[in-house]
Amino acid sequence: MSALAPQAPVPTDFIGEKAARAEKIRQSWIGVMEARLVREELQKCWRTEGVNHYEQCHHLTAKYLDMLKTNKVQGYKVLDFNP
User: Fold this and answer.
1) Whole-number Å distance between alpha carbons of 38 and 24
2) CA 9 to CA 76: how far, in whole Å?
3) CA distance 21 to 26
4) CA–CA separation, 16 vs 19, rounded Å?
5) Which of 33, 37, 22 is nearest to 74 (CA)?
6) Is 39 exposed, middle or buried (0-12, 13-18, 19+ CB in 10 A)?
7) Any idea what the Cα angle at residue 11 is, between residues 31 and 16, rounded to 5°?
8) Distance from first CA to last CA of the chain, Å, rounded?
9) How far apart, in Å, are the Cα atoms of 47 and each of 30, 34, 38, 54?
10) pLDDT at 3
């Protein structure tokens, strides 16, 4: 009898999958950084517009809320187990 644990199957294109995983993570971080830039612009708009910020900054608020819904960082475990 062998005391070794069974080996997990190694994908045939492991290097390609690893590169694709890294690219997906990179793209998700780019989306997060874009949302951060929109948030900073929204903060500037709030400060400069004062009491009129509800009307003047609405487009930035809508864009930021949309980006919060869609631009989230997903780790490699989520990407590998939920294709």
Assistant:
1) 21
2) 18
3) 9
4) 5
5) 22
6) middle
7) 45
8) 37
9) 26, 20, 14, 12
10) 66
Beta carbons of 82 and 33 less than 8 angstroms apart: no
Burial of 11: CB neighbours in 10 Å, binned 0-12, 13-18, 19+ = exposed
pLDDT digits (tens, 9 = 90+) for 33-61: 999 999 999 999 999 998 998 999 999 99
Residue 41 one-letter amino acid: E
Decide: 57 and 49 in contact? Cβ < 8 Å: yes
- Contact status, residue 67 vs residue 31, Cβ threshold 8 Å: yes
